[in-house]
Amino acid sequence: MKSNQRQLKNVCTGMAFLLPNLLGFLAFTMLPLVMSIYMAFTDWNLEMHNYFRAEPIRFVGLRNFAQLFADPDFGRYLGNTFFLMIGIPFGVAASLGSAILLSLEFRGTRRFWGLSILTALMLGGCVILTLAGMGATAMTMLMASLFGSVFFIGSIGGRTVYRTLFYFPHFTSGVATFILWKKLYAPENGPINNALRPLFSALTPVAESLLPFADGIATVLLGLMMALYVVMVFRKMRRWEDGECGHVSAVLGMVVLSTPPVLSMLWVDAPWVRVAMPVLLAVGWLWFAWHIFGMKRIYNCVLDYKIGDSTIVDGVAMVASFALIGLANVVWNLPELVGQPEGLPLPKWIADYYWAKPSIIFMGFWAAVGSNNMLLYLAGLSGVPQDLYEAADIDGASRWQRFWHVTWPQLANVTFFIMVMAIIGGIQGGFEMARVMTNGGPAGSTTTLSYYIYTQGFATGRLGYASAVAWLLFLLMFVVTMFNWKFGNRYTNE
Amino acid sequence: MATKKKNTTGARLTRTTLLHIGLSLIALLMILPFTWMILTSLKLLEEVEFDSWLPTIFQWRNYPDVFRMRGIEFGRWYWNSIFVAAWVTFLQVFTSSLAAFSFSRLEWKGRDRVFFMYLSTMMLPGLVMMIPNYQNMIRLGLVNSYLGLIIPSAFSAFGTFLMRQFMMNIPKSLDEAAEIDGASKWQLYWEIILPLARPAMITLTIFTFIGNYNSMFWPLVMMKSPDKYTLPIGMLAFQSSQGQQTNLLMAAVAMSVLPMIIIFILMQKQLVKGIMLGGVKG
Question: Where are the alpha helices (DSSP H) in A345-394?
Fold first, then answer.
């Protein structure tokens, strides 16, 4: 009796502290959640259900979802979302690179403080004077002095200064920086195109001389892509044989590797591709199947061994293949580009159907170099035991080997965490860029799922349909998170 | 051995210099857009599209001019942004710390189950909740009001999680000592745990403030009249109505980034620590 009373009292105190938060949580998270599930199965549409026309809201079952999959636009926007995520591995690699640079020893700095400052000042002064003497433009001098001052402050302040400057773009990223980039990307006289104009006019003769070989070069690029596929499949089987990856990881890797060849059939116009790619894929998969079913492994391992590691590597290979396909397509289109009277046309960046997505990816890359990921990597790097490097040195490891055999495996859990978070963010991302910079255009080429939900739910008022899209987005994220839970822990604990 | 021998003074100086040059080049790329922004904001409108980034005469009056533009209530938006972000931050840190105290320092039946419920909603994309939330706001008559902007953001599962993780690491013996001294639970929270949880509170404060200052989606759907806009929405309106005036637009962009830069420089150390706190644990 007494203990019961005590328990009740405990619950009351606990609840009293929780109450303010719990009320908000119920009102603004749980209630909308339930409503949203309900809405996804209704035909709630503000055009039919408003002050002037109050038709009853009907329960339509799975019709919203059926409509979704029948809608060709939805497929495109899903594709856009994934396309924009191609930037993720580049951004992560860049932040790892900058973290490694920042973590290198600066020991010399303090000792040669005076000397380096003096050198910087003198060099800077000389360079500016020489430039002025050579009659350089104010622009060149501006760039030189800017570089000089960064160098100067950096050599005084060391790591903190660089870290701060690297982190700036990420920290300030928002509507303001998107507006700034929209101006930078201005097609007529934006600073980027102003800077590129001399380069492009210099490149025009080169492009013209390449014209006769355009077909050949494009074919070689696609050939490289196919070779990469073969190499990666071969590597996969080797690793499988050595017990370095399990069955599940092997099959998943094959699926990831096979995406570029499959999509290249859609994206590339050359007729031979439609024959070559299926052959390549068939050979790859048959070889793979024959290997796995017919061979004996030297070392055995569990089904999903190393799934995270190999998926990351295969993902990088996939992105590289996509880049090759894109390049090949550019080369194929070269005749049309060079044909114009003013020479190679400058890209119209976010105003161009094909350039819009790469432009946004590049902007994201700029913000991703020194993001939170860099800080996480910095923390991870300081946690790598120093004796591992010493041992590697004794074994005579090169710099490259030190990275691949010590640093990279030691950072594996950080990388895995970063990749999962980046993918989850990428699936929901793209709304702000689309709203600020492109309005989802040109012709829907930068409309991502989140922007689609916004236009459907808030601009058009199709609440039921928008909720269905939102839940599908959740499902995608859920798959990624499940993948993380299932395999991430085991992987990081190894 | 060969590598050791290379570590002479000259080699080290060269290496350090090269490293500094490399790092400076990357840093230069990072700040170039901002440099262009500042320089363009000081130009005359006719000069904006010139090749050279430098203005012939620095037009400092562009900055006060932004506040005087017709239809652009820049000062008002500034104030709105800071007002809303400050309230959200205060309320969120307060409610989160209360809930975290309950989840970490008090023993009650069903506590962990409720906490798990909190945790599991953290994974949901915010977009799922936006549509019904907006409908509820219409029903409550809170559309186009500060209250409608502040209240839904005042409660956060993430903040609760962050604070709880931190409070879990404060030794339990403090609670017992306080209890022996006859302190009530509120005194325990207010006088002992909260001061000790200051690092987590500062982290949450920075994150919440910056997140809210930058947030665009919710203000975009909620605020209808220009005098209620926050800065991101205001900048959007500025861009679509008078975006051709690049120099003034850039002055406005520079001014809207300024508070973040100040916060960043002042709070850098705590911020870096906080990212580790929230990030590595996952």
Answer: 356-368, 372-382, 386-394
Which SS3 state, helix, strand or coil, does residue A59 take? strand
pLDDT recorded at residue A491: 47
Q: Are residues B104 and B214 in the same domain?
A: yes
DSSP string, A419-452: HHHHHHHHHH--HHHIIIIITT-STTTT--HHHH
Residue pointed to by tokens 């009530």: B184
Q: Cβ of A121 under 8 Å from any chain B Cβ?
A: no
For residues A323 and A234, state if they share a domain: yes
- Which residues are paired to A54 by β-bridges? A49
Who has greater pLDDT, A483 or A453? A453
Task: Evaluate whether A234 touches A253 at the Cβ level (below 8 Å).
Answer: no
Residues 34-73 of A with CB under 8 A from B: 35-36, 39
Please tell me the least confidently modeled range out of A279-288, A396-405, B253-262. A396-405
Chain Cα centroid distance, residue B251: 21
Distances (CA, A) of B129 to A25, A33, A473, B88, B151: 12, 6, 12, 18, 14
Question: What gap in Å lies between CA A7 and CA A4, rounded to an integer?
Answer: 5
Nearest-CB residue to B99 (from A17, A119, A481): A17
Same domain, B19 and B114: no
- Write out the residue range of the structural domain in which residue A23 sits: 2-67
CB contact under 8 A, B136 and A432: no
Same domain, A491 and A355: yes
B23 shares its domain with B156: no
Check whether residue A149 and residue A221 sit in a common domain.
no
Domain that holds residue B42: 2-63
**A218 in the same domain as A175:** no
Whether the bond into A260 is cis, omega within 30 of 0: no
